Structure formats: structure tokens, C-alpha cells
Amino acid sequence: MSPISKKEKATLVKQAQDHFWMHAKIWDPFMTNPEMLIIMDQAEGTHIIDVDGNKYFDLMSGLWLVNVGHGRKEIADAVYEQMQKVCYVNTWEFPTVPAIKLATKLASLAPVGLDCVYFVSNGSDAVDTAWQMAKQYQYLDGFPKRYKLITKRRAYHGVGSGAHAATGPGFFSRKYIEPMVPGVVHSAAPFCYRCEYSLSYPNCNLLCASDVERQILTEDPDTVAAVMGETISGSPGVISPPPEYWPMIHSICDKYGILLILDEVICGFGRTGKWFACDGHYGVTPDIMTVAKGITSGYLPMAAVIAKKKVRDKFKPGWVETFQHGYTWNAHPVCCAAALSNLEIIEREKLVENAAEVGAYLMELLENLRSHPTVGDVRGKGLLAAVEIVKDKKTKESFSLTDPFNVELTQQLRKMGIIGRVRNILGIAPPLITTKSEVEWLVSGLDKAFGEAEEKFYSVKKKGGEWKQTRKRNR
Length: 475
Ligand code: PLP
What we know:
Layout: H1 6-19, H2 27-32, E1 40-44, E2 47-50, E3 55-58, H3 61-64, H4 73-85, H5 97-109, E4 114-120, H6 123-140, E5 148-152, H7 161-167, H8 174-177, E6 184-187, H9 207-219, E7 224-230, H10 245-256, E8 259-263, H11 277-282, E9 288-291, E10 303-308, H12 309-312, H13 333-348, H14 351-366, E11 375-381, E12 384-389, H15 404-415, E13 418-419, E14 425-428, H16 436-457, E15 460-463, E16 466-469
Parallel strand pairs: 3-13, 5-6, 5-7, 7-8, 8-9
Antiparallel strand pairs: 1-2, 2-3, 4-10, 9-10, 11-12, 12-14, 15-16
Helix pairs in contact: 4-13, 5-13, 6-7, 9-10, 14-16, 15-16
The protein binds pyridoxal-5'-phosphate.
């Protein structure tokens, strides 16, 4: 368990620079400033440990997914046992015991009516698969021209070709990714803090929801297969639509015979304090639901598309009318074993209930951060929360990704022993095993980290629990 030597670390850094193509912005300091590079080595519970032996609180459960926490031996044992029994079969031809058991378990946990489970390997596959499923469903239902997908702006659905189109061109540089797969139409984001119409809830009458009907009519209902959205979005800013939003979208879809697909890749499996956010917080059961991440808590890659029977029953056995889709890793038996063990832990340890209770406490404490000059908003549900970071509270202008303030905040968080992702938001989604006392420690660490970072650029003082800015931004 002892940290590695300086020489071993230097070798690892050099090998990483030469051979490991790391994605996104992280690659930059990695190549130019290896001091910024943290190589992770071990993890236990809510913490991750780097090769130098430094221990960090895992603020975002990796990428919003290590729901049961790190180092669960029983999942490792279940995986080991399954690997010895049978590691792989041709999943296009044969089901396996863990796949059938997991499908049954998921049907019992999912919103009532979502009974049929199609396994894939990651969130992007799930989204691509759900769109493909909706298109073929519509075709078999007598609407061969219904192929379009309506998604929201400020969404994140992944980076497979279909998923990337569903996400839209706003997330990565347009220059390299366009043209995108055709057929996706984007409607307004249900994002009250930055309303596209500059309206306020509830006086807005949810124009963002009625906008979806307008889009359907503009496109022609006979060309639209499905409407899709993250029930509560994660990466684009932890955005919970108002309570009426999904019920309104659901009835618009029903009116035109269009399928509703809800993407619960992040918010499924207890993250928001309910097993699933759609029925749990909005009272809505979609026609198709996509899940991933928390399904195995990251112990192995796995995802699923869970559909109503009416959807599956449209498909017929045989070559032509069966679902024209499938990956080599569909229903991988070892991943199914990991998922079964993970779900057993979530149920046994009542982690969904814990997420609701500790999440409510987290939201209460996060409110205290609002007086920081760079905290524009705090929001969330259960243990899916965010602090929106702004350059200016009045204009709500965001920092650029590489702004020195973001770099400084990242460094300050590390000093406090917290590892997370600083972008336009600071995502706060710790493992669902997090306790109230950990939340107290955590929010106090965030408060200090913001204070230290702001001091460099604004000069701030804390008086009577409130942060005051004493001069303008320093640049
Ligand atoms: N859908 C949602 C809501 C997501 O948050 C993500 C990833 O974060 C995806 C889909 C894509 O999942 P993956 O990265 O596993 O492809």
C-alpha cells in the first residue's frame, strides 16, 4: 500500500505522455505541466488514493456513477465466480443465467410497465439503441417516415454518432464533428436559471414544454419517431425541469403517437433519491428508458434500454421484423453478474433512501455558498447536485473552461483533499454511501476552496457567515 518511488512515478508520467491518449482538456496540463497530473492507484469507500499516497474525497463518484462506493469485495467476488463459470457466449444466439436474472431484477425496479430489457455496454450505445428502436417501432406500427428525434438544447446523451447528434453540436467544437447524423431537432432547455425566453417559472406557463409541440408540428408529426431527454440532466449543469415539464411532454407525445424516451444514464439507480427520477419525481413512465453508470457502479461497463411491452411486441421473431441491432458485448454475463451484485448492495444498504436523506442535507448546506461572488446558483436532487460558477452574478457570464479561476479552484479543492470537475458547474455527486458528517466536512471544504480561489481574483472577506467581495475581479 506504500506510495511508489519518485523514479517509478517519473517513468509512469513519461510513458503516459508518450502513449496514453487522454481525452478532453485534461490532456493539456498533462503534457505541459506534469505536476498537475494525478495518477490514481487505489480507492476505498468515498475516497480515491493517488500513486503518491494522497487521499481525495471522490466528489463526483468518478463520472456520476460509483453509487455503492469503491472497493466492494462482494462485487469482485461475483465477477470472479462468473468468469470461472462462463465468461462469454454468443449473446446473439443464447441468453445466460445472469442476463435473465438481471433483466428480471431491472423490470422489478423500473417504473411500472417498463418490462423488457435490452442490454448494451455504455450510455451512448443505450441512446443510439433507443433511437433505433423507436424508429423501427414506428416503421412496424405503420409509420415508415417517422425517424426524427426531438431532444433538448443543453443536453448530454453521449458521443456515439446517434448519441452525439442527440447531444447536439454545442458540447464539442463544431468544426470537427459536423455534419452530424441527420434527423435530430432541438427544442428549448427547461432551465429556469438561464431561461431561453427570459421568463420566470411559473408565469412562463412552461413555454419550453409547449415548444416541443410546436417543433413536432413544424417538422410534421408523421416524421417524428420520439422525443428524448435526460429526466434530470447531469453534465450540462444538473438541470431539474419544473415538476409539470415531463407530464406535459408525455401528453404531447401521446397526442401524436410519438414515443417518449427518458435518459436516466446519470439519474437512475438512486442518484436523485429515488430509484429512477422519471416516476419518482415526475410521476411519468416513458415508453423507453436508457440506463447505464450506476447499474454496476462502474465495476464493469454495462448499460440497458428498458422498454414497455407494447414496444417490444411490435417486433417479431425472424430475420426481417426482429430488432435490426446488436453489439458483441450485449448482455455480457460477467457485467450482468457485477450489476446483480451492485443492485443487491443498493437495496440491502438502503442507499436510495440514504441519497434522499443525505442529499436533502447537502442541498441545505450548499445554500450557504450562495454569498460567494462566483456562485451563481446551487441546485440538485438527492445526491446529484451542482454549484454554478459565474464570473459575474448579475450577467451570469461563465468562465471559459481554461480560465485561471477554474485552474485555481481545482488546485484549492485538491489542497482540501477533494477531487472533482470544475467547469461552468462544479458537479457534486458523491457515492450514495456518503454520510451527513462527510457532507458537513465536504461543504466546509468547498466553502474554503471557493474563498481561497476568489481571494486571488476578487479579494473577499467572510463576515457573519456571508462572503463579501471587496474589489472587482483582478483581471
Ligand atoms: N446519457 C447521459 C444522460 C449521460 O450523462 C451520458 C454520459 O455521461 C451518456 C448518455 C453517455 O454515456 P457513456 O459515456 O457511457 O457513453
